[in-house]
Write the structure tokens for this entry.
Amino acid sequence: MNAAMAPSTVTPRRRTGLLIGLVVVALIAAVAVWQWFAPPPARFVEYPMLDPGDVPTAIAASPDGGVWFTIDGANAIGRVRDGKLERFVEEKINGEPIGIAAAADGSAWYTDGPAGQVTHILPNGQLSSVALDRPLARIGQLAIAPDGALWFTEASAYSITRLKDGKFERHVIDRLWGAALGVAVAGDGAVWVTLQAANQLLRITPDKSMQTFDIPTRGSSPGDVTVAKDGAVWFLEFRGNKVGRFANGRFEEFPVGAEHAGLTGLAVAGDGAIWFGMLRNGSLGRLKDGRLQAFRLPRKEARPYSVAVDRDGNIWYTDIRGFVGMLPAQQAASD
């Protein structure tokens, strides 16, 4: 038979090569389709500190659109407004300023433990302080109540302290409880506090009665706390690596997938999503409709410490590596 007229054949090796080629083409097509339909990666907007040595800590969003933040170990407080980062100089260095809250008029209050005072900053940067009436001050977080009163945890006095019109009113807790850290005020005026050593939530009602609630996970080390519009109390369990919820006398706990994530900072968005920092994971966490999702920050060395939600739904955070950042609302709400 003439070689030109011989029947065509496909060897096993050639058949294998064709199959591999088809698989590769299919994989490339699948990746292309996934990239086309998959949501884009989160895009953050970040502002480096004006002083390279500044370490931003607590953060609060103001109704006027400004975002205030404290700076550890510096004689300054910062603000981001209209896309511009500002730095307001104080007289003294403030160490561990972990409490800040924004008022309805655009001003902010923040803690100054080493100086034994809480400080008020107006939108124009003017500063004034109220000195505590005790020589030793260990101040934790703070919150502003609907009536304008300032509440803050005061570990050195075993107290959750109320400040209004220049007068202090202390709600002393049992020394065995101790270590009050987070504080939030609900719409009905009730004050909620996390007691780390006791592993409890504490509620102080407007008539000054106090009641505690045991957190189910033992040794969870509760930290930040906030109250949603529906009255549910949300809190972080630092050692328990969980996000907790307390409503209608019942606890729910949501484990965070990343082991020892270092949960810190807590805020509720307008859509009901719970946002928090994952300090050791370099990410922001979101709990929405019972589903957890992490949004990794753009830098590997990022360490998000505190979070806040502004009036437009943008998620703000401080990064102790020297940045204040924002996840735009559209990105934050995406699935």
About this structure: The longest strand covers residues 84-94. Residues 1-10, 22-40 have pLDDT under 50 and may be disordered. Residues 151 and 162 are 5 Å apart (CA to CA). Residues 12-37 form the longest helix (26 residues).
